[in-house]
């Protein structure tokens, strides 16, 4: 479980406190990973298979002799079909072996380029924002705090009324408050600290109005 029931209650309380003096609505969203990166695994497997074929093309005599020794053959005449069969076998084995290795998610994430991870996290954060906060408050004051644990990345996305008054870099304090505890494995504490900082920003960007009421749930959304 990403967050225990006790952690979820603490975060809901932190949201309620942060929203007490603002018309803004804070929605924490936490996911184990933003993507499975299966396309990355396939791309790496194809690349390794290509490298194997390239090595075979560069030193065919060496690999043919190696196969002869492994199979116990002696001065065998290789036909064109045998050469193509060897190339197909080598490529298939390398592809399958790399694909099997990349079923280990930690390895798959390690081999995924950082720009791809950033793009996938951002895309998932936008989806979470659109489904949970965008245009769901009277004054369009929703803010999503999105945390993707596997990639160790987070984003803050605000609805129009808040985004018009808050520059993206203003959220830096909230991100720093989140990432410090998160690096030490304290997710709930990081979320509480970041939510408090977001609440402070919202007090100026979306001041409390008369007859404000809670329009969005306070508890974290777990994906």
From TrEMBL:
One Pfam short name: TPM_phosphatase
Spans traversing the lipid bilayer: 41-63, 83-102
Presence of keyword Membrane: yes
Keyword Nucleus attached: no
InterPro entries reported in the protein's UniProt record: TPM_dom
Gene3D superfamilies linked to this entry: 3.10.310.50
Domain of life: Bacteria
UniProt KW keywords: Membrane, Transmembrane, Transmembrane helix
Domain TPM: 132-200
UniProt protein name: TPM domain-containing protein
Originating organism: Novosphingobium pokkalii
């Amino acid at each position: 479980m990403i967050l225990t029931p006790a952690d979820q209650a603490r975060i809901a309380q932190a949201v309620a406190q942060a929203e007490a003096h603002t018309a803004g609505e804070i929605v924490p969203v936490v996911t184990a990973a933003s993507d499975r990166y299966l396309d990355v695994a396939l791309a790496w497997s194809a690349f390794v298979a290509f490298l194997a074929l390239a090595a075979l093309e560069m030193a065919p005599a060496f690999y043919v002799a190696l196969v002869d020794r492994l199979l116990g053959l002696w001065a065998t005449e290789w036909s064109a079909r045998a050469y193509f069969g060897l190339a197909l076998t080598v490529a298939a084995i390398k592809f399958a072996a790399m694909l099997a290795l990349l079923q280990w998610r930690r390895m798959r994430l390690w081999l995924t380029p950082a720009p791809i991870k950033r793009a996938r996290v951002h895309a998932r954060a936008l989806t979470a924002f659109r489904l949970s906060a965008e245009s769901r408050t009277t004054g369009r004051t929703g803010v999503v705090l999105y945390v993707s644990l596997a990639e160790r990345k987070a984003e803050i996305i605000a609805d129009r009324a808040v985004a018009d008054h808050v520059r993206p870099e203003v959220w830096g304090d909230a991100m720093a408050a989140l990432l410090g505890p998160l690096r030490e494995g304290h997710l709930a504490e990081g979320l509480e600290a970041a939510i408090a900082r977001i609440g402070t920003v919202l007090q100026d960007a979306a001041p409390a109005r008369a007859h404000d009421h809670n329009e969005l749930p306070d508890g974290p959304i777990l994906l």
